[in-house]
Amino acid sequence: MKLPKISIIGCGVSGLTVGIVLLKQGYAVEIITEKLPEQTTSAIAAAIWLPYEIKPIELANKLSTISYLKFQELAKQPDSGISIIAAKMLLQHEADAWWKEAIPKEFVRKLLPSELSAASTCGYMVQTPLIETPLYLNYLLKTFHTLGGQILMEKIQDISSLSTEKEILINCTGLGSRALLNDESMYAIQGQIVQLQASDKVPCVLAEYTYGAKGEELAYVVPRKDCVILGGTLVKYAEDLSPIDSVTKGIVERCQELVKEIKGLSVKNVVVGLRPGRQTLRLERIGNLIHNYGHGGGGFTVSWGCALEVLRLVKEVSERD
Ligand SMILES: Cc1cc2nc3c(=O)[nH]c(=O)nc-3n(C[C@H](O)[C@H](O)[C@H](O)COP(=O)(O)OP(=O)(O)OC[C@H]3O[C@@H](n4cnc5c(N)ncnc54)[C@H](O)[C@@H]3O)c2cc1C
User: Fold this and answer.
1) Mean pLDDT throughout 243-271?
2) 3-state percent helix, strand, coil for the chain, nearest multiple of 5
3) Is 156 in the pocket of ligand 1 (CB under 6 A)?
4) Which residue ranges make up each domain of the chain?
C-alpha cells in the first residue's frame, strides 16, 4: 500500500513531534512553517510536564500520561534535553491537583505540613519531566531531519490553497490557527518570565494558585542548565510581547518568597510569550485535514499523546483509501 504524503503546518513542539511519529511509521513528511522552532512560543516555555490551562481535563490527562511515559524514556538519552526532577507543587485547593491522576502513583507523594508555604494548604512532590526547551527543540529538529523530514519556509495565508486531494494536511499552528481558520474560540494567554543566571542549588517549586486582585500573577521556579526560570503571569486576551519592568519586579519578589536560594542570582533575560488558549484543545479530523492545536499552557505536556492520536487519524485516512 502506498502511503499518502503528509504536510504539517507549524514547526513548534506540536508539529515536530507529530512529524517524528509519522516519519517513524514510514510516511513522507514535509513541515511548512512561517517560523523555525527557536522563534516559536514553544521556545519561550519554561518547561515542565504539567497540564495547565488546557481543557477538557479528562482528555488532557489521558494525553499527558502518554507524554509522561515517553519523557521518562527520553530522559535516558543525554542529548534529549529531558531530565526527571523533583517538583514541589503547592496548592490552596486539593481539586486543583486534577493532573495527578495522569502520573503513575509511585511518582507522586503528598507534601508534609512542614513542607508547605505560608499561602498553601496542601501540595504534592512530583517526579516530573523537566523539558529544557532550547535543547529539546534542537533534539526534535535534528531527529526530524535524520528521519528524512523536509522543511519549507512559508506562511500559509489561506488553508484551502493547500490540496488535500492526494495528501494529508495536519494543522499544528498554535495561536496561528486563530487567523488561519478564523477560529474565534482561540485566545492568547500572555505569560512573562524571567531568566536568572543558572544555579544547581535551586529547587523546582510551583504555586498552583494565583496572586493579585485579577488572578493574573503566578509564582514558579524552574531550574534549567542554562538559567533559572521564574514565572510568571497569566493574562488572557493580552497580546503585547514587550516585557514590563514592574511585572519583572513582582515575579522576582513572589519567587523569592517561595525559594530563598534564588536570592543574589542576576537577571539574564526577560521574555513574553502567548500561550495558545482555546475553550477546548482541538484534535480532530475533517476529511484529509487534521487539527492539532489549542494546547494552552500544556503544549509540551500533551505533545506525545496528541501525536499518537494524530497518527491514529492519519491511519483512518490511509486505510480508507
Ligand atoms: C511563558 C510560557 C510558559 C509555558 N510553560 C509551559 C510548560 O511548563 N509546560 C508546557 O507543557 N507548556 C508550557 N507552555 C505552553 C507551550 O509553550 C505551548 O502550549 C506550546 O508551545 C504550543 O506549541 P505549538 O507547537 O502548538 O505552537 P507554537 O510553538 O506556537 O508553534 C506554531 C508553529 O506554527 C507556525 N505557524 C503559525 N501560523 C502559521 C501559518 N499561517 N503558516 C505557516 N506557519 C504557521 C509558527 O511559525 C510555528 O512554527 C508555556 C507557554 C508560555 C508562553
Assistant:
1) 97
2) 35, 30, 35
3) yes
4) 5-320
Phi/psi of residue 293, nearest 5 degrees: -155, 175
From the list 302, 315, 316, the residue with the least C-alpha distance to 53 is: 302
How far, in Å, from the CA of 11 to the mean position of ligand 1? Answer: 9
Spatial strand order in the sheet of 167-171? 150-153, 29-33, 5-9, 167-171, 289-293, 282-286
- The Cα 46–Cα 122 span in angstroms is 24
pLDDT at 127 over 90: yes
Residue 4: pLDDT band with limits 50, 70, 90: confident
Mean residue pLDDT of the chain comes to 96
pLDDT at position 321, please?
67
Nearest CA to ligand 1 atom 15: 297
Nearest CA to ligand 1 atom 50: 45
Whether 164 shows a pLDDT value over 90: the answer reads no
Q: Is the CB of 295 under 6 A from ligand 1?
A: yes
The CB density around residue 226, as the number of other CB atoms within 10 Å, is 13
Enter the CATH code of domain 5-320: 3.40.50.720
Question: Which residue's alpha carbon is at the smallest distance from atom 12 of ligand 1?
Answer: 298
